Each structure stands twice: as structure tokens, then as C-alpha cells.
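Page 42, continued from yesterday. The earlier attempt failed because a stray header line got pasted into the input along with the sequence. Redoing it now with the clean sequence only.
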Amino acid sequence: MSLRRSCFLVPGNNHERIRDAIDSRADCIILDLEDSVPVSQKNRAREQVREAIQHLDFGHKLVAVRINAVSTEFSPEDIRQIAVVSPHEIVIPKVQSADDIKIVERMIDAAQNNARPEKKIGLQALIETACAVEAIHEIAHASKRLTVLQFGRADYFADIGANKSFSMDNYWSVSLYPRSRIVVAATSAGIEPVDTVYPNIKDMEGLKEDARRAAGMGFRGKWVVHPSQIDIVNEIFTPTGDEIRLAKKLLTAYEKAQTNGDGSITVDDMLVDKAAIVAARKLMCQSEQLDLRNKV
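This time it went through. C-alpha cells are written below.
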């Protein structure tokens, strides 16, 4: 799995913003061709995104491109121009059903014919409507290219007619159901759930609370739209020293029990079940990606 604690969305038609994103500490950069780009700038955005992927050094960052929705006139040209430069992933917005994933997959295959076919492009599905939430299981299993299910709060709220007045409790009460469905569906499909943008870029305490809740329910990372959000999100989605030490202790106790043929494991007076071992392994895998395993 790729690191995607923080996924930084930047307009594809803004070269300076793209360069700033490269210099940031975001794990993933999402170059946008959709909502942040006006219709008059779509062609320019495609050209700049192509040039950026071909000529700029993104280092170890994961690079994704958000195309326009399958239902729009823009998506075929988005895919035709972007697939040939092979970003790591393409983000499909406003997915309504598994068919949308399959349509994009076919268009990528056609665009990549004889053009760097050895580099496979992954797909992210943005879940932004009631229809998508209800079809979430089929969407999650629609393609082997699929790597992420990502929640899109703003469009989901608009689709269901949610109250626009913002408070943390209202925000979470309205979005808990789709968020839960996304985490469950992504996990069942062996892919990653990524949480939505926190809308107030000046409210750092609200961002912390929102990210903590998302991490607590199983999301692996979060979209950000401003550089000031990146470090906070990275910190919250990074295992702490205490968590790593406990995971090591659990795995050591489990290995010892397996060697001795013991059926039950107790650590710090707590009975350890298989679910705890699975969680400990996932946490240690993430800590290895972040080079934290031997630093605690």
C-alpha cells in the first residue's frame, strides 16, 4: 500500500501551486482537472498536468490526477491526454455505480495502447452521492485497478439536501453513515478508505478533531486543500511511539504463543484476540513505510 496520509488537491492549471505542492510534506498530490478548474481553462490544465508529470520531480510522492466526471463531455479527453503520461492513479469524481469505474478502465486501456503499457494506472473512486453510497460494495469490487474509496463531503451533502449550517456534531451526524459504508466496503475489497477535506482552512482545532475521528473509524488518510493542513493530518495518521511499542509487544507475545502451542495470549492483563494481531501487523507495516519501526 502507498502512503496517503495527506492527499493535497491542487488546481491543474496553476503551475506555481503544483510546484508548491511538490515542496510540501504531503504524501500524495492530486492534480485537479475538475471543480477547481473553470471550463475555459480545461485544455490548459490538461497541458500543464501532462508537462508536470513528464518534467517535474515529485520525489517519492504519489501522483494522481482527478479527471472530470464520466457523465461530462470533458472526461474522454482528460483520459486520452493524461493516461499516456501514466500518473500513479486517476481519481474518478461523482462515481454513481461500478459501470463508471469500468468505463474509465476501458478508456485508459484504449489511451495507453502502445504507450508505456508496462506502467499500470490505479484508480480512486470519489463517493459523493446517495446512489454511490448505496452501490458502494459493487463499486469497491469493480476493478483490480481500484486502490481507494474516498468520501466527498460537499457534493454528498448537496445531493441529500443536508443542513448547510456547520457544526462538528451536525457534520458528523450527517456523514457518519456514508463514512462507515466507505470504510467497510474498502476494507472488504482490500483497498484503502480516504477521508474528505475539512472545509475550514483556518480552524486547526476543528481539523484535528475531524481527522482524529476519521482515523479512529479506520480511514487511512485525508484530503487537504491548504498547506497549513498537511502537518496536522500527517501527524494524526502516523502511528505514535506508544502504538508501535504496543504492536511490537503484541506480535512478540503472539509469536511466542505460536511456538509454545498456547491458544490464548495475554498482554498487560488484557486478552489478545486475532483481530488485535491483524491490527498490530497493519500498524507495523505503516511504521515500516514511514521508517519508524526501529526508532521507538
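Notes: The two ends are 22 Å apart (CA to CA).
Reminder to self: strip header lines before submitting.
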